[in-house]
Each structure stands twice: as C-alpha cells, then as structure tokens.
Please model this.
Amino acid sequence: MNDPGGGAPADLPLRGKTEVLKEYFGFDGFRAGQEEVIDSLLQRRDAVGIMPTGAGKSLCFQIPSLVFGGVSLVVSPLISLMKDQVGALRQSGVAAAYLNSSLTPAQMRSVLKNASAGKYPILYVAPERLETEDFAAFARDASIPFIAVDEAHCVSQWGQDFRPSYLKIGGFVRSLPRRPVVGAFTATATPRVRDDIIQLLGLKEPKVVTTGFDRKNLYFETRTPHSKEAALLEFMAGRRGRSGIVYCLTRRGVDEVCRKLLREGYRAAPYHAGLTAEERRINQDRFQADDVSVIVATNAFGMGIDKSNVAFVLHYNMPKNMESYYQEAGRAGRDGSPAECVLFYGGRDAVTNQYFIEKERENEELDPETLEQVREADRKRLRQMVEYCHTSECLRSFILSYFAEEGPKSCGNCSNCLKEFRMEDITIPAQKILSCVLRMKERYGITMLMDVLRGSRSVRIAELGLNELSTYGIMRNESKKSLREKINFLISRRFLELTDDSFPVARTTPLAKGVLFRGEKLMMPVAVEKPEPAPRAAKKEPMPEMPLPPDLFEKLREKRKEIAEQQSVPAFMVFSDATLRDMCDRMPRDWDDLLNVSGVGLVKREKYGRVFLEVINKFRFKPE
Ligand code: ADP
Ligand code: MG
Model:
C-alpha cells in the first residue's frame, strides 16, 4: 500500500462486463442500476448514477475502466477513499494506482511514468492534480477512454460537500485532445445538485440512472430525551453484544460517550480526527473484526466502511443535514437484515451545527458572495434536518421526499408510524403564538418568541420592551417542550416560516390569517406517551443470526484477521463479511466450487483460496 506506483500488472485478459464482474470481483449478478449505467458508458454515452450509499457505485465505473483499453481516470475527493478503493482493487488483481498529495514528488513521477506506459487500467486522481503541468503533459499523450467523477455532488455549491476544486474537472475534460466518455456518481438526489453535475461537468445528454433510496430493512426513530445520557444507557442495555455505531457531533462528545459505555462494560472504541492515524486504524479494524461491538465516532468515521452486520446506528446528536444523516444511518443493515436508525435530538444540536456552518468554510478559496450562498444553502439544510426531528409524519416518507422520491404515507417501520397519536385542538394556543409573532413585529427568532410567550424575566426582554406586549406571558403555564412542539407544527404546516438569515427570524405566512381572523380550527397530532412501543420490541427479537454454525464464521474471521495482519491491509480488503457469510452458506468443497462464493474472483481465489478451503474442510469433518 505504501508504493502506489507498483502493484500487480493486470495479466488477466480484458473481457466483457459479466466476465469482469465474475473474474475480478467474484459476483454473479449486477445490482439494481449498475448494468444500466455500465451499458451506457460502454456505448460511449455519458451517464449519471444516483444511488444511495452502499448500492455499489464503484463497480459502475470500475467495470467499464477494465473493459475499455487505455487508462481510465477516477476523480475522487478524499485521500482515504482513494487508498481504500485502490487497495481493494489490487486485492482483486487490478493494477490501480492513485495520484494525490500524500505522495512524494518522486512517487508521483513514477506513477505518471507507469501510467504513460499503460500499466494501469484505472488511475485515481485528486481534482487538484488535474491542473498541474506534469499531469496535463501526461494527459495530452495518454489514451484516456473514460473519466469517472465519484462523489460528483462535490461540484455543486448546493451539495452538502462543495469542493471548489471539482469545478476544474469540466475544463480538464474539454482540454483533452479526444473527449473521453464521462460518468458521474453520487448519493445526493436533489434535482438542483443533479442539474449542476450535468452542467458543470459538461456531460453530453447523459443517461441518468436513479435507483430507489428506500432501505426497507431500516427502522427509523427520532427522540427528544430529557437526558440523553439516560436514554443512551437504556437504549444500549437492550442491544448488548450487537454491532453498532454511535455518532456524536464533536470529539469531546465522542470521548465522553465512549467513556460512559466502557464504564458500563460495553466493548466500545472511539474514532475521531483527534486520534492519530494509527489509533484510528486500530479502532476501525477492531470494529470491523467485531473485536469491539460499538464504535463511537464523529462524522470522520465511515467512508470506505464495508461492514455488513451493523445492527444499529444511534445518533447521539443531530447531524448537520439529511444527506449526512441518511448516509451515516445507511451504514446499518447493509446485509439486508432488520436494523435500527435512532436519532436523539436536543436543542443544543442545532446551535452546534449552526456554529459549524458559520465557521467551517472560512479557509476555502471562495469569494464572499459564493461563500454566503453556500452558507445559506447549509442553513436551509440544517432547518430541514431539525424539521425531521420534529415531524409527526412518517419518517421514511419524510426522508424519501427529501430526496425527491415518492414515499408511502405510512411505512409501518418508523417511530411515527408505530406511535399512537391523538388529535388535539390547538386553535387557541396557535392564535396566541401567531399573534405574538405579529406583535413582536416579525423581527425575532424562536427562542425569543418562546421567552416572550412564557414570560421570561430576562434582562434582554426588558431592554427591548417586549415585556410590555399584550402577549407577554400568555403561555406561562405551557412547558417549553410542548410550546416548541406547537411552534414546530405551525412551521411544518406553513403557518409560520423562518427566514434564511444566520439568525432565522419567525414570520407569519398568509395562511396564518385563517386561524387568527377567520376562526379556522387547527388540530395537531400529539403522541400518546407509552414506554417502548410493543410492536417494535416483538419485531426485534428474532434478529436473524448467522445461518450456519457461527463457529465456522468465527474461524473464517480469525483466518481473515491473521492474513490481514500479515499483509497489513484492513480485513475487509481480504474478504467482506458478506463473502465469509456466503462461504458459511455454501461450504465450498473444492477449488472450482470456491468461485461460486460471492466475492471470490480469480485473483483472490489464487491468493487466499487454499487457506480458506482448509478452514472449511477442517470444520466439515470436525465441527467441534
Ligand atoms: P457506494 O459507493 O454506492 O456507496 P460501494 O461501491 O462502496 O457502494 O459498494 C458497496 C458494497 O457493495 C461493496 O462491498 C461492494 O463489494 C458490494 N457490491 C457492489 N456491487 C455488487 C454486486 N453486484 N454484487 C455483490 N456485491 C456488490
Ligand atoms: Mg462510493
């Protein structure tokens, strides 16, 4: 892995897509959407693949790269992502390499030399590299049939991870003597981002392939616990020994939660950017190998994670937008087993995220106007995230409609669908709230509005004279939580709206008039408080265990760990959990039979086949 310039040459003959899928990657069939994208690219028509995390976007560009001759380029935003993908490709016998700032100048030259000599069918490259003189010189002479842009939403300032360097890609493509076919890949499905991708990358009448974003096996839940700490311990108590991820917003949060879990006897480990690369790698490997069952992490954790048996993803804090949330939550249940995605919301979460938004992009090369536009989009996304935490509608349908997809009215597998609601007439409290907004001249945010309604004695309110208003203190007896719920409801039903400023101001909409002046009645669904909803508990119990004697799976995992350590690669690069599971299912008898296991291609069989067969055979004859 340290010498990205070398690597096994691809001595396998180039084949059609199905042979490549089987012989290099060891898979028997394509997943939804993959073939459509691949076919389009092979016919030299540009393509956009919009598929959720874990759907298998990488194969959509890796396979065409292996079918075309020459060297295909993959533009990727993160060094760690490139390392993982190149490492995994090499394990499968594909001579891939990468070019990014982690290489020394000598290494870079050597990679470019090898690339010019046609040694790599796939070259990963950071967008910043495209503009360098060396690279331009290489690209002028090389035969580049295909360019794939991974995480393509980075090109759009409406996307959640805008990277100015992605804007250079379009120009680079145009600068080439022969225009390659271009494929773009993302898990972000908003129409605006999709249009930006097509336009800014200069795609030509691309085939746009979108697969469904719904993950039916995932259960979604939101909670606003009084004490997150108590809620955490209660949640974890029911899931001891299961593999899970707990996401926190800050490093400090990670350390605290992790300490708490360790104290309670859970096998937990932390993961965040404050740890050394070595510590992070060890903790990730231990999690991957089920040596620890829970990883407590910031959003730094996850890229390149391929763990199929994650039973829950708990968000201890609300993340900054729905894109991040769905991506992180989506790491649960990759193998299709039922899994839980639970989010603990607290008012501080919104404040912390707001702070990140105002601070975050300071160091990027953006002109002030663009920067403000980007921040505005970030703020809007944050508001939608907060809305998710408060909605009483079906959570799945909320998520799907966020990603511009039609969802069911009620999915039956989220906390809102399983909750019982009673309808409460809130006409009078709604009138109080709306008229207070008007009396405050629509100039203040939610916090101030609540303070006035509840008659807060803060100095600030007295200074502003807000305690003189006739609505001051008219909801004195309402709890903060219940007042907040009503305000959220008014926002979600568009009686109230928040402005796009960094300190959003509450304003009434024309709809408010109906309630205020025309005597319209307003009903709000209110959850009937119950301990743990029963249907879910019943559903959760028979979590499918390993289909075959778990000892074989254990033994295969031990073997994998041993090999991974010997070769100093992450365990999942040797074989994924899904592959080990398939070995347990099939118990292959011989060399030929091994190829029937999903994830065993020709090269991996050559490398690891014999040792794994040995383990399986030993187990077959002497299962104890
Ligand atoms: P994405 O980039 O869309 O998030 P990846 O490309 O990382 O997803 O793929 C996720 C996982 O799915 C990987 O472990 C990959 O090996 C597996 N995978 C992809 N395509 C197939 C397939 N056709 N059959 C079986 N497994 C697949
Ligand atoms: Mg990917």
Remarks:
- The chain has four domains: 17-210, 218-402, 421-527, 550-620.
- The first strand starts at residue 47 and ends at 50.
- The domain at 17-210 is CATH 3.40.50.300 (Rossmann fold).
